[in-house]
Amino acid sequence: DEDWCGAGALDLSLVPAPLSKPAITGPARAGYTLSAQAGTWIGSGTRTVRWYAGSSHVTTGSTFRVPTALAGRSLSIRVAPTAAAFAPITSSSVARSIPRLTSRTSLSAPKSVKRSKRAKITVKVTVPGLARPTGKVTILDGTKRIKTVTLAAKHRGKVTITLPKLKKGKHRLKAVYAGTSQSLPSTSTTRSVRSR
Does residue 98 contact residue 34 with C-beta atoms inside 8 Å? Predict the structure, then answer.
């Protein structure tokens, strides 16, 4: 009995299927706009492009401006037929890594301090694109760690630190910002403080 083979048979040549992988084009950096190339498909119809940061869906469309919040993450796209009478085939691109943001750390300190007093210094961390950088800041005296503090969002990138008492003599201080998953580490220039 061959009655099943008739006008209702599925023509597989009309089934949308990818022939090549989709791709992301453009500079993969925070603040830049990326474009999606859907790849080559067989079959008719339109395609839907979805953008993912890791496994999380972030938006849909042919272009995407990368926000600073995604620095340090990876981006990919998934393309599928917009409408299908059956479960659509999805094609995914190779992931593109978004670099972490650069940072700059500066330190201001008094030129001298009495041995009986605890010097106060100010550390400023600047991360273009982030108004409220966070992370650990370590103060070194030469190569010795003398203080570590947490830079919180409430500090807006600037924190005043009270140091332990310094022994008599010259001290070479610098601040080391550890960075985060979004921002790269950086180190300030060295400042000399004389304890008298």
Answer: no
Of 42, 47, 46, 48, whose CA–CA distance to 15 is shortest?
42
CB atoms within 10 A of CB 127: 26
Within 13 A of 147's CA, how many CA atoms are on the CB side?
A: 22
* Dist CA 191 CA 108 (whole Å): 7
Residue type at 119 in one-letter notation: A
What is the pLDDT averaged over residues 34-62?
92
- Which helix (DSSP H) or strand (DSSP E) does residue 42 occupy? strand 41-42
Task: List, in sequence order, every residue forming a beta bridge with 41; answer none if it has no partner.
Answer: 18
Q: Look at residue 82 in the predicted model and tell me its pLDDT.
A: 85
Nearest-5° angle of CA 188, CA 191, CA 195?
Answer: 145
12 vs 115: CA distance, rounded Å: 85
Cβ atoms of 157 and 127 within 8 Å: the answer is yes
- Phi then psi dihedrals of residue 47, to 5 deg: -120, 150
Q: CA–CA distance from 121 to each of 110, 129, 145, 192 (Å)? A: 7, 25, 15, 12
Considering the entire predicted model, what is its pTM? 0.81
CA distances from 38 to 77, 87, 120, 143, 188 (A): 9, 18, 57, 53, 45
